[in-house]
Amino acid sequence: MTQSDHRALSVPEGLAGERVDAAMSRLFGLSRTRAADLIGRGLVQVDGAGAAKSDRVLAGAVLEVEIPVEADASEVVPEIVEGIKIIHDDDSIVVIDKPVGVAVHPSPGWTGPTVVGHLAGAGFQIATSGASERQGIVQRLDVGTSGVMVVCKSEHAYSVLKDAFRQRTIDKVYHALVQGHPDPLEGTVDAPIGRHPKADYKFAVMADGRPSVTHYSTLEAHRFASLLEVHLETGRTHQIRVHMSALRHPCVGDLTYGADPTLAARFKLERQWLHAVRLGFEHPDTGEHVEYSSTYPDDLADALEAVRAAH
After folding, report:
1. Per-residue model confidence (pLDDT) at position 1
2. Does a structural domain hold residue 163?
3. What average pLDDT does this structure show over 26-52?
4. Beta carbons of 164 and 170 less than 8 angstroms apart
5. Catalytic entry in 21, 97, 142, 299
6. What residue stretches are annotated with the Pseudouridine synthase RsuA/RluA-like domain (predicted)?
7. Containing structural domain, residue 137
8. 260 is catalytic
9. Cα(179)–Cα(292) distance, rounded to whole angstroms?
10. pTM
């Protein structure tokens, strides 16, 4: 049930004759647009009766409004998330295997499960550095991308690994099943990425974008698709997806970035075939090189077998 803030004030002489939306704006400190929205939703009454925004108010009239309290989009809600696996846990870091359909942290417009919510629900204490909804987070994976990632538990680990990601000393390895056969079979995509000019949920290669470098090599070539190993030098949002799409070899199943829906349906894919398989770095406490890995989840493994078998 949505909570609401009930407010009631009588109209002073100085506002007599004003429109209801203008009076609300002055009395309650709301924008005219917000006031009009509340009136349109039937949440405003003048002397106990419904009001239209163009109605005029009289001095002494009681103006009442119910203002819904919107949920804080950045609030971390502790909940155990089915499918998240703990690969490694020590005093400094927790390494997890993130399933598809889980966001790393809360954000506006996302109401589904999150990694930080799971860790809170499971009793993990994570670093308090970073924005409240992103505390301990030094890397992200898309909601539609699965695989291995690290979250920091200590402030020292957060500082060390945040810097390591910034200095590009982290070994981030993904496997991607892409349409067709990239030419050359291995190479580097060095193309800046920025927000798509016509769709704010997408990204694109843009001249004024942020520097983005992706290294790839072909592991397997099949009739319809190629399995690539991808090493990320930078870590932009949707980087592999955008760069592969720019090469005209989008990840199989990635309809957002131009994949063939017929091919996706044939191999029963409901998301992009992209998985974070390995993560290597110097442990923030010991300084020794550690590496963690994740196997393909069932949907990707089944699709790859189907591609291998396709003639």
Report:
1. 40
2. no
3. 88
4. yes
5. 142
6. 93-246
7. 72-158
8. no
9. 28
10. 0.76
**pLDDT tens-digit map of 40-88:** 989 999 999 998 888 999 999 999 998 876 656 677 889 999 999 999 9
pLDDT digits (tens, 9 = 90+) for 149-201: 999 999 999 999 999 999 999 999 999 999 999 999 999 999 999 999 988 88
Same domain, 102 and 116: yes
Q: Per the structure block, which two tokens stand in for 156?
A: 């020292």
Tell me the pairing of strands 146-152 and 274-282: parallel
| Percentage with pLDDT > 90 across the chain | 76
Q: What is the model's pLDDT at position 68?
A: 79
Residue 99 lies in a domain: yes
Q: What CATH number does the domain containing 29 carry?
A: 3.10.290.10
308 with 205, same domain: the answer is yes
